[in-house]
Specification:
Blueprint lengths: L8 H14 L10 H7 L30 E3 L17 E6 L5 H10 L3 E5 L4 E6 L1 H10 L5 E8 L23 H11 L2 H5 L9 E8 L9 H19 L15 E17 L4 E15 L30 H11 L1 H11 L3 E5 L6 H10 L4 H8 L22 H22 L10 E7 L2 H13 L6 E5 L17 E5 L11 H15 L3 E7 L2 H4 L8 E7 L2 E10 L7 H4 L1
Parallel strand pairs: 6-7, 9-10, 9-12, 10-11, 12-13
Antiparallel strand pairs: 1-3, 2-4, 2-5, 3-4, 5-8, 7-8, 13-15, 14-15
Length: 568
Amino acid sequence: MARRSNAPLVWASIAACVALRRGVSSFETSSTIGNAHRALGKPIRQPSSVVLRSYDDWYIEDEAIGDGATLGDSRESADGDEGKDNKDNRVYFATCIPGLEQALAGELVEIGAKRVQAEGRSGVRFEGSPLVGLKALVYSRTMHKLLELVASSAVHQPDSGDDYGYQDFSRGIRTSRDLYDFVQSNVHVPSLLGDGKGGLLTMSVGTIYSGRPPKELSHTHYTALTVKNSIVDLVRDLRDDGERPDVDIVCPDVPLILFVNARRQFRSRNWETEDSDVDIAADVDLYRCLHSSGSLHKRGYRADDSGDATAPIHRAAMKESLAAGLLLEAGWGKLVNDARGNGRGAVLLDPMTGSATFPVEAALIAGDVAPALVRIASWRGRGPNPHASPSFLKWKDFTSEETWNELIARATQRAKVGLQWAQSETVGGCPSVKILCNEQNPGAADLAASSIKKAGVSNIISLHRGDCIDWHLEDDEVIEGRTMVVSNPPWGIRLTEEIDTSWVNLREFLRREAGGTEAWILSGNPALTKILRMKKSRSVCIKTGEQDLRFLKYSIFAKKPVDNEVMR
């Protein structure tokens, strides 16, 4: 019998939001920053020639970071028309949890990004039109921040021969005056801060370091203040009314991020005294963030995402982006896509689910639900929804409101079709997607049930309460070759009670119930994984917070049937 599909309230609210926004007239976008530069007779900085440095997301350490590996050009995405604006090429930088850069790069390739290149272990540089940037914001599951390059000191600027002319900062920036002049020379403020109506947009400036910068650039606040002052002076020079841009640190229209990548050069060395004359300089890249609503890893379906400081939270809660990235690394997306084609179904088991981050993200992947839709529908804050009306809609050189609305409407339709398929049945009468999870702790189980309901995937996920050693599955619930096990058992950093027993019970569950499957276990303690008494076949290294984690793959062999004749 086919299961009844109740349309979640989530999609009703999204549809209402899209319909409401379609009633607002769209505005005409003006020329791009590049076109504005042409109009002023300035030399154009070609994005394809930009050499970005490697950054460790917001985890900045004073260490050398290796060069990224280019993944090559991608296939065009069928979701939207790329041809009309593919000449408007932009350079972007997306950040992620260290270790998920390849998963993020794969997502970007899928949506049509070009020249995708992992930078360090927690970021990906790519190029594409504004539409590609919008798709990354809507569909990426592993991204934390999405930034568009405004100016880079690493690019050599030839002498233009005009009065304006660029200064060459490719040899590095050493002083606050250098930084001030760099912004004055490279930032076109009418395109950056103009609202298209004669007014000015609000702004904020943040600073991120990689390595040890020159002394005058070592203070985050004063370095950001230098950038702000330079931009304000540019505005004052261009306007006769004395108006200056306002700074908004809560929800700015143009959030700017300055990356300072230190470099050292030995100018001379006295081999007798072993004294060295060291030249410390920095390459700086100025970006603007496409969203001012915090990190994109927050989907909004958790109780603690509601803004209520008293809302309960699981002690070892996993970030949504981490769960999604690990699922993609494990091949859950490929398993689901195969199930769409061959109709054999896809099954996911989580015997220690905690607050159900793995199952919820797996259901959203299976249902083709874009993370942006969940963020839009889950917003409960005051004022305009920053996910439905991102700050870039106020920029006059990026995209139109009509384009954004069409992209959200298309993503909503994809989600409806995807969820309908995920809740349908295969030819054999089994669910197309079956996600089963278990949690022993009553408080964590309540949080899991709440997250599943708020995400609108209750028809796909089944939650069992109890110890996994007592969780017995039906014979037809595990399909050999079509079932994946994922789990984040306690491993001793934030949870310390009865850890060894938990791992023993997990081992017995896998041996008894998960024969013929692949099991992926997340652990930050090598000693505990030995309790499983299994040989891993793959290890994915992840760094989150202060912890170095491993996502370990195990092949669980199916039990051979006992031959009674041989036993006699």
